[in-house]
């Protein structure tokens, strides 16, 4: 199981087409800060019907968008 599983399940339960979470919100959900491993694990989110659309280091946010395959 991925260490990001709690985040993927949280996002999957969202009833929206788009979602933006701050690094602080991500840490609250996960229990640890996101790191470089997030960049390689983000493809796991596709199985939950979502994509990582944009990671903003400046704004410290991650924007997610529902996958067209799961719309």
Outline:
Helix content is 30%, strand content 25%.
Describe this protein's structure.
- This protein is an alpha+beta fold.
- It has one domain.
- 30% of the residues lie in helices and 25% in strands.
- The chain has three helices and three strands.
- It has helices spanning 5-12, 23-30, 37-41; strands at residues 18-22, 50-56, 61-66.
- A three-stranded antiparallel β-sheet has the order 1-3-2.
- A hairpin with a 4-residue loop joins strand 2 and strand 3.
- The protein starts with a helix and ends in a 5-residue tail after the last strand.
Largest sheet: 3 strands, antiparallel
Low-confidence stretches: none
The rounded distance between the terminal residues' Cα atoms is 25 Å
The helix fraction, in percent, is 25-40%
Strand order of the largest sheet: 1-3-2
Helix and strand pattern: HEHHEE
Number of strands: 3
Mean pLDDT: 93
Dominant shape:
globular
Radius of gyration equals: 11 Å
Name the descriptors.
71 residues; alpha+beta; three-stranded antiparallel sheet; globular
What's the arrangement of secondary structure elements?
Layout: H1 5-12, E1 18-22, H2 23-30, H3 37-41, E2 50-56, E3 61-66
